[in-house]
Structures are given as C-alpha cells and as structure tokens.
Amino acid sequence: MSLFKISGKSVEKMNSTKNIERKIQNLCENNLEEIFGVKFLRSEYPTTTGGRMDTLGIDFEGNPVIIEYKQVESENIITQGLFYLDWLIDHKGDFEQVLNKAGVEMEVSWDSPRVILVAKSYSKYDTYAVNQFSGNIELWKYMIYDDEVLHIERINLAKDEKEKAIRHKSRVTYQTYEIDHHLAGKPENIVNLYYLVRDEILKLDENISEKIKKLYIAYTLDKNFCEFVVQKNGLRAYININKDILEDPKDISEDVSYKGHWGSGCTSLKIEKEEDIPYAMELIKQSYEKNL
C-alpha cells in the first residue's frame, strides 16, 4: 500500500524504510498496549528447549500472548509460534512467575491463549497454514515509512476459509460459549434490551466482531472497544476509553480503572431501559472511534 504525505494542495509519496526488521520488535514492545491491546511482560523469554520467545505478554482478557517477529523471508514462524504455544501450555507455572515478576495483577485465562505473528509480508503458504491450524493464530503485516510512520494491520482470513479451517491439534482446548450462556435465566425485558443495544453496536461497522466470553460479551475490531455483563436489572457496559477524555455531559459513567472487574474497559456505565440506549450509544461510539 502506498502512503502519501499531504503538503498544502500537494501530496508526496512516502518511501518504505529499508533494513528495519530489527526495529519492529522494539517498537512493538514499547507500544504493545496501543498496537495490540496487550500488556508487556518479557522480551526474549527462554524456554527449556533452548529457544526464546520474542515477546511474552497478557491481553486485557487475561489470555497469555506470544508474539514472534519474522526477520527473514524463509523463516517459518508459524511452526515456531505453535511450538512455543504448546510449550507454554505445559509450563503454566512459569508464565505465572513471569506475571508476578512484572508486577501485573491479573487472573490468567487459559481458554484462548494467542500467538501473534508480525512480518513485512507473508507467502500464500503462510496463510494456508494458518487457515488449517486456525486456533488463535494472528498474522499482522507492517511497513515503516520515512522512519516516522508505522503502518500495521491484521490480515483477515476469508470467511469461507475460516469455516473450513480445523483447530490446531495441540494440548490447547479452546473453550467456546454461546449467547444463551449469558441470557439464560434473565428477565425478558433485559434480553430484549441486550438485543437492541447489540443491533446498534453492529450498525457502527461491518468489521465489528462479537466474542462470547465466559464472563462477558465483547465487541471488537483489532481490540475490544466495548464489553457487556448481562445482569438481572440491566446491562453493565465497559468501554475502552478513559473517563477523563470521554464526553459525558450527563456524567453517567464511572472510572473503574482502579477496580477489579470483568472485561478490559476502564470506564463503566449502566443501561437499564430502552430509553437509555441513545445516550449510552454516544459513549460507546466514542470508544469505538478511539479504537479504530
């Protein structure tokens, strides 16, 4: 993809920076939360097999995250990433120690550990392999322009390829949940309220994904921008935007960044009836736009 710098009424094509493979790991590790929504834990983490994981982190849902960077075209980081994933599953206690040493107080979830692969480009064999393994393997492509602009994007698999993909047969068991897991036993008016809010959120962008987690329902692009806990008397929403920059003239939101709670959003609000939806969506939309 070509990028152009705007200067008045003219544009100037930006040039891709050469020989920056070694820089990308430092850039990502210094900005993991901004780029991937992941807390940094450790760089070059050694395994008992002699290999080293490039970056080890944990996302805001408590899932362990392994990040590997493809330095040369011939390097097969897909196989390497899967090998490290299996190793990590066998050494959960080691991950807990890394978490404690980093001073991060989070409950670890082993339902969906992630492998993020970062490279300038991928071959058709790479994407085919990910289609077959599926699981939580993510391909991210990057380019640096003029040493000042980083373009990084996730490569999305085609819908039919996702449906054909089979799970990677490792010791990882990916737990899945259905929406009834959250709606069962709730009053009819709350169930209807949830579906009304859900429809409004999905109207924001056709690329929004809905993830049904054990403890909450998440709406995400590259990272979550809104999560819901369905309660008997309403919907508790968590949005991924700081309260101090949120435009909330009615002041219905609460800063929960210092409180333990389900979901990754740092600001909370309650939706109790249909009349609350329009204003609540104004706040949710701000979180969506911030996380584009």
TrEMBL record:
Residues 179-290 form the DUF5655 domain. InterPro entries: DUF5655, tRNA_endonuc-like_dom_sf. GO terms for molecular function: nucleic acid binding. Gene3D superfamilies: 3.40.1350.10. This is DUF5655 domain-containing protein. It comes from Methanococcus maripaludis (strain C7 / ATCC BAA-1331). The lineage of its organism: Archaea, Methanobacteriati, Methanobacteriota, Methanomada group, Methanococci.
